[in-house]
């Protein structure tokens, strides 16, 4: 394991920011710390980095007990949302900086900088100042700088948080490809579930200072440990006594199966390639949301007011409304 966090807790006065956190991250893995704002993700990342000390517990990095080591002795690289690159230094100088203060030979620094700029696709901007780069390019520069000193662990705190949606998405794909090339153990904080699902090998869901679940994107999506994880990782609606995903509901215009529940379409909204139906269900306070593909919806030819019957699809993931462990419906 590259990073072992054991029994880590952190309080700010009476407030418990982290409560008995245990997590093992294997070497070379790209891990997302995912959760709502204030859940404790950044605090955990900062404790791994050594920028914050835990009240109790231990942090091991590559087999070395790092609990009491200062950040510079942990061999970690980090990038934050508003990363301060040196404004008066060129792109190349920024990347070279960490190597120069370590007094590496000139030729080695030059070769390493060229290699890193190539990796982050900034070779043609080597002589520009950071102010002459776009936001996305600046974050790539920040990553190159963090990678220059060959850290054993790379820690990223919402590295793309301040950028617009399109650039964010590009950088996300790029980070995944970069990781596939260099395989440095990476932990990144995000509150964006799509970002975590698309990029990470494994996701640690953190809420109110505790770990809700650890798993691959598929495991979390298909087998959420509880109501919270299910709701945080995707859209959820209610049907009968269970919560499930809107695309995991069969909608029919005849009663069909005996367990189908009758309802009436009160709204139909086309969004891109899908149609979102709001259905009032008999004996249920909240309406049910059903999402169908446009082709499927067109075949059913439904108007507002139509009578329909709903049931969970075979194999749908669902959790009881009160939030016990998730179950898979039997085929
Ligand atoms: N120095 C501090 N003093 C007091 N409270 C703090 C301090 N740092 C963090 N906290 C509190 O600890 C909790 C966890 O903060 P943390 O930054 O780890 O959350 P987060 O999950 O990263 O959230 P976000 O996505 O908003 O950054 C928050 O409620 C925050 O207000």
Automatic annotation (TrEMBL):
Name recorded for this polypeptide: Sulfate ABC transporter ATP-binding protein
Entry GO MF terms: ATP binding
UniProtKB keywords: ATP-binding, Nucleotide-binding, Sulfate transport, Translocase, Transport
UniProt-listed InterPro entries: AAA+_ATPase (IPR003593), ABC_SmlMolc_Importer (IPR050093), ABC_transporter-like_ATP-bd (IPR003439), ABC_transporter-like_CS (IPR017871), Mo/tungstate-bd_C_term_dom (IPR008995), P-loop_NTPase (IPR027417), Sulph_transpt1 (IPR005666), Transp-assoc_OB_typ2 (IPR013611)
Species of the source: Nocardioides aromaticivorans
Keyword presence, Nucleotidyltransferase: no
SUPFAM superfamilies linked: MOP-like, P-loop containing nucleoside triphosphate hydrolases
CDD domains recorded: ABC_CysA_sulfate_importer
Pfam family, one: TOBE_2
Span of domain ABC transporter: 3-233
